């Protein structure tokens, strides 16, 4: 039995996505660029997928959609492309809580002589927009902000940020990492000041190995992968036809499921969250209650350690993830929770639970029953019994 | 997911001797909440024998397993045996730990050492701890790791690189500012190689390894090797006999000659075929 509550890490491939892909792994294997009738079907399939993704992201036309291999490739293409586009400008602005694939690209650019400002967040995980606004100068080549945070689910107001950027410097490009927003909240890049936006298929029920980069039609980026004419020369390499078909269908299904995400997935997430918070006395919510994607919750358990929680949950078939240092082997706990100033007592014991449209009420009920049991077991081992007793007292008084 | 041994999994699933001993004779402590793992070790000691041990751990699966295993290793044992236990012994009893998790076994050992030091008013000398008791300088301020802890980890586990020291002690794992200092400690405490050899001694040692270890192996295949020159840690050699025209000679040089010299003489050496 697997209770999969780690959908921000990856998601299950939707059966309908797989079905749509199979012909292109079997009979319709032609290279879409070839000059015979046999290649028409795959070429049309790519065009159809591009149309679906265009609609999903609310782009103006299909030419703005580039298929890539993953979210990291989308980010790398956009970021490295943007600084090449704005040659001469040496300043970049991003946030302290971006995904490592973005942060490490900026670390790389810092070594190349770029100056990068990292904007902080408050204890709810919300961005300091004023600070961001102040930092924009004539020298700013790029601002990049994630739409939703992978660890906390907190949503950044990217439309508003786009307007601020362009009002201060119209030449500054704006990249939005929408990997954790796609399929969870509506995305509509049309009529926004977002120049580039990246998504990853496997976060919304397409398989791993396919992503998308949206590039506004007036922005010309040099390709990251140089070679053939594919994707109008913006991303070389023979098109990954079955996966492109897959992300197209996944985008269409995700678009249709948005209402369900915002209502039913949210209801289950809220039930899970309140259920756990109510049944454990050493827990706290690591973000604001509002202003989050509907599927994510991040709970900190004080005076116990996250990896141990995950190992015990795994024994019960429950898959979750943790911002604990021990899980990653990095020795440092989550950069996101630290940027939020999460109390050090809860920093190492923070758990992320992320649902999908496939999560059932039964699974949520099971998790609500089992997670507090695991927490109680681990509390027994903790050396901080006095502190825990204090928390228990406080919780009892509160009731 | 980490690849944990069955023993590790058994111990974090069913930790032995959890809790506190209210009338403990001594309590050893290691780690801290901010660092992400900490341990309290309670001991009852009677007539030089550890009669009971319990623990409380804040930490990951391998930290709990290390603590649990440690209590099993010391209950009923004479102090003289207990003080010989090293972190490597704890890791070994657990069927090994992933390299990045070795610091968990070190924490177990630190708590034990702390307990025994307190119990004997720091009068006893530990085999591998600072015998002079010169108080220990903090090297890594992020994780509060002292020179003693790093020295012991280097000596007991034969550590050679800064990364290994980080895996074993956590030192240098956060801001990384102390990495230079850790390298100095490695230079000081790691098994000595050519750093102490004079240029003449280095030449003699390399030549000896070539003549007594490498050449006999090559001769078995009808080949031979001759030392030509040594400059700036580069060892210039000539392959002879069947080795000289063997199309695998590059492989021979890199895989066998170089690795043997690195192992026996110095890790910094590079072998060049002339």
Strand content of chain A: 5-15%
Structural domains of chain B: how many: 3
General shape of chain A: globular
Query: Helix segment count of chain B?
Result: 10
Task: State the fourth-level CATH superfamily of the largest domain in chain A.
Answer: Type I PLP-dependent aspartate aminotransferase-like (Major domain)
The string of secondary-structure elements of chain A, in order, is: EHHEHEHEHEHEEEHEEHEEHHHEHH
- The tally of strands of chain B reads 8
CATH topology annotation of the largest domain in chain A: Aspartate Aminotransferase, domain 2
* Sheet of most strands of chain B: 3 strands, antiparallel
Given the C-alpha coordinates, what overall shape of chain B results? elongated
Distance between the termini of chain B: 47 Å
Summing up helix and strand content along with how strands pair, one would put the structural category of chain A as alpha/beta
Strand order of the largest sheet of chain A: 2-8-7-6-5-3-4
CATH class of the largest domain in chain B: Alpha Beta
Q: Overall pLDDT of chain B, averaged?
A: 86
Q: Which fold does the CATH topology of the largest domain in chain B refer to?
A: Sufe protein. Chain: A
Low-confidence stretches of chain A: none
Pick out the low-confidence regions of chain B: 124-134
| Total domain units of chain A | 2
């Amino acid at each position: 039995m697997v209770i999969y509550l780690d959908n921000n890490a990856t998601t299950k491939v939707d059966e309908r996505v797989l079905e749509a892909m199979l012909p292109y792994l079997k009979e319709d294997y032609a290279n879409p660029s070839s000059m015979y009738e046999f290649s028409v079907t795959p070429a049309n399939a790519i065009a159809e997928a591009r149309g679906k993704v265009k609609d999903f992201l609310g782009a103006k036309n299909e030419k703005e959609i580039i298929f890539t291999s993953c979210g990291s490739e989308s980010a790398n293409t956009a970021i490295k492309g943007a600084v090449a586009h704005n040659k001469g400008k040496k300043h970049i602005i991003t946030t302290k809580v971006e995904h490592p694939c973005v942060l490490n690209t900026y670390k790389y650019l810092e070594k190349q002589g770029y100056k990068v400002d990292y904007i902080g967040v408050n204890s709810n995980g919300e961005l300091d927009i004023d600070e961001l606004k102040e930092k924009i100068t004539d020298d700013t080549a790029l601002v990049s902000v994630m739409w939703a945070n992978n660890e906390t689910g907190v949503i950044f107001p990217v439309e508003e940020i786009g307007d601020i950027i362009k009002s201060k410097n119209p030449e500054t490009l704006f990249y939005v990492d929408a990997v954790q927003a796609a399929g969870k909240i509506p995305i509509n890049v049309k009529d926004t000041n977002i120049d580039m936006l990246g998504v990853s298929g496997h976060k919304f029920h397409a398989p791993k190995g396919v992503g998308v980069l949206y590039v506004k039609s007036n922005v010309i980026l040099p390709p990251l992968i140089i070679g053939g004419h594919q994707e109008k020369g913006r991303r070389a390499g023979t098109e990954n036809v079955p996966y492109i078909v897959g992300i197209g269908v996944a985008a269409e299904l995700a678009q249709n499921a948005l209402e369900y995400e915002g209502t039913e997935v949210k209801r289950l997430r809220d039930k899970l969250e309140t259920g756990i918070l109510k049944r454990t006395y050493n827990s706290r919510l690591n973000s604001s209650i509002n202003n989050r994607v509907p599927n994510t919750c991040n709970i900190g358990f004080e005076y116990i350690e996250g990896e141990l929680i995950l190992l015990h949950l795994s024994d019960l078939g429950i898959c979750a993830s943790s911002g604990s240092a021990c899980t990653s082997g990095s020795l440092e706990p989550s950069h996101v929770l630290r940027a939020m100033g999460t109390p050090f007592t809860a920093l190492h014991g923070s758990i992320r639970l992320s649902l999908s449209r496939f999560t059932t009420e039964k699974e949520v009920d099971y998790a609500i029953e089992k997670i507090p049991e695991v927490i109680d077991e681990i509390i027994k081992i903790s050396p901080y019994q006095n502190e825990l007793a204090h928390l228990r007292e406080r919780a009892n008084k509160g009731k | 997911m980490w690849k944990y041994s069955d023993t590790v999994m058994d111990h974090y699933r069913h930790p032995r001797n959890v809790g506190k001993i209210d009338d403990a004779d001594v309590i050893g402590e290691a780690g801290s909440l901010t660092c992400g793992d900490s341990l309290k070790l309670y001991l009852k000691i009677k007539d030089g024998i550890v009669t009971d041990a319990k623990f409380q751990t804040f930490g990951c699966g391998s930290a709990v397993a290390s603590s649990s295993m440690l209590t099993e290793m010391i209950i009923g044992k004479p102090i003289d045996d207990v003080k010989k236990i090293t972190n490597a012994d704890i890791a070994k009893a657990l069927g090994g730990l992933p390299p990045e998790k070795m610091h968990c076994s070190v924490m177990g050992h630190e708590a034990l050492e702390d307990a025994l030091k307190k119990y004997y008013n720091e009068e006893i000398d530990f085999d591998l701890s600072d015998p002079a008791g010169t108080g220990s300088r903090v090297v890594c301020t992020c994780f509060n790791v002292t020179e003693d802890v790093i020295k012991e980890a280097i000596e007991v586990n034969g550590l050679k690189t800064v990364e290994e020291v980080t895996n074993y002690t956590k030192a240098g794992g956060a801001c990384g500012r102390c990495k230079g200092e850790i390298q100095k400690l490695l230079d000081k405490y790691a098994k000595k190689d050519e750093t102490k050899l004079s240029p003449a001694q280095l030449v003699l040692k390399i030549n000896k390894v070539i003549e007594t270890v490498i050449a006999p192996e090559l001769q078995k295949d009808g080949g031979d090797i001759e030392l030509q020159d040594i400059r700036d840690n580069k060892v210039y050699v000539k392959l002879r006999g069947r080795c000289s025209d063997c199309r695998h000679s590059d492989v021979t040089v890199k895989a066998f000659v170089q690795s043997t010299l690195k192992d026996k003489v110095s890790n910094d050496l590079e072998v060049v075929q002339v």
